[in-house]
Design goal:
Helix content is 44%, strand content 12%. It contains 14 helices and eight strands. A six-stranded mixed β-sheet has the order 3-4-5-6-7-8. A two-stranded antiparallel ribbon has the order 1-2. The termini are far apart.
Length: 329
């Protein structure tokens, strides 16, 4: 049996599940030798550990920061985003075996993360807009590639502002004269957990849904601890400019958090306690374009009432001279 095949059989029982308990290469070599057939050098074993950790089908993964290896988990069902849960194709729910409780549980997890992202964005003086109706039952499958879960609006007026602060009129006037939007739109795709099996689909859906805005961000709830996964995401970012970040909230922590409605309506002290549980990490920074694709935005406006609502909200802010949070009619 080849060395790689032997390692594929031996490693699952030796590697810890939790990346925080990752085992260092020297100790892993010692443990492997107790079960290994054949006389292989330390260098050969280290080489195989490194190569296998980049293979999504192998049982070994290397931690993103620090040293050590852990056991790669099995592929997770493609249920990280709200759109897979809320609609489109019943086939996307088959991974849960038509278990309604499991589906409800996964949906609640997604709602919690949406609420966390929304509160985080608001606390950082940005203005979120959520897309929901484009992902309801019966919606076209192509909506996955047209619409993000959220759009973040950053008002580019040259000064800080809050809900009651007037937009700086001279800067606003100048940008309008130059044909520049006084705001920056960033589309965001939200996912619960990244995997080597699905990160490319996550990334390119984010890219496709961001072409009409000025940039895109792929945001994961769980920390990205797999070195090969992080490197793969950075390589895509270098080529296409979509940002990638993690809120550092593991699944156990997410389960312990209150329901989405409670998160959105939390008192300041409760919100502060929630924010303390977030360990935000920027994996790769987004590259923003100067202009919005107005033609593509007009096309989406004709297809979606929500896009029309986004445009109406932005126009209302400009006409009123102040940045206001979006409120559903």
């Amino acid at each position: 049996m080849s060395l790689r095949n032997q390692l594929s059989d031996i490693l699952p029982s030796l590697l810890p599940n939790n990346p925080s308990e990752a085992i260092k290469g020297t100790e892993l070599i010692r443990l492997v030798r107790l079960q290994l057939s054949g006389n292989y050098s330390d260098a050969s074993l280290r080489y195989h550990f490194s190569i296998m950790s980049c293979d999504p089908a192998s049982p070994i993964a290397k931690v993103e920061k620090g040293q050590g290896y852990y056991r790669r988990s099995a592929p997770v069902p493609a249920l990280s985003g709200a759109q897979e849960l809320l609609s489109l194709s019943q086939g996307r729910l088959d991974d849960l075996g038509a278990d309604s409780k499991a589906i409800d549980h996964a949906l609640e997890r997604v709602k919690k993360f949406r609420a966390i992202v929304r509160r985080f964005i608001e606390l950082n003086s940005r203005f979120p807009f959520e897309f929901r109706n484009v992902f309801t039952a019966g919606s076209p499958l192509g909506n996955l590639w047209k619409f993000p879960e959220m759009v973040f609006v950053d008002w580019q007026t040259g000064e800080d502002h809050d809900e009651a602060t007037k937009l700086e009129s001279r800067m606003l006037s100048l940008k309008q004269r130059l044909g520049l939007p006084p705001f920056r739109l960033t589309s965001a795709r939200l996912r619960i957990q990244a995997s080597l099996h699905g990160y490319r689909e996550d990334f390119f859906q984010t890219l496709s849904a961001s072409t009409w805005t000025q940039g895109g961000e792929l945001i994961y709830a769980a920390p990205i601890v797999d070195e090969a996964l992080a490197d793969g995401l950075r390589a895509l970012n270098a080529a296409f400019g979509v940002g990638v970040s993690s809120f550092g909230i593991d699944l156990e922590t997410l389960e312990d958090l209150p329901r989405a409605a409670n998160i959105l309506n939390a008192h300041p002290k409760e919100t502060e306690a929630l924010i303390e549980r977030i360990h935000f990490e920027r994996i790769a920074a987004p590259r923003h374009r100067q202009h919005i694709d107005w033609g593509a935005l007009e096309t989406l406006r004709r297809e979606s009432e929500e896009t029309a609502s986004l445009i109406d909200w932005l126009c209302e802010c400009i006409e009123d001279g102040r940045a206001m949070p979006y409120r559903e009619a």
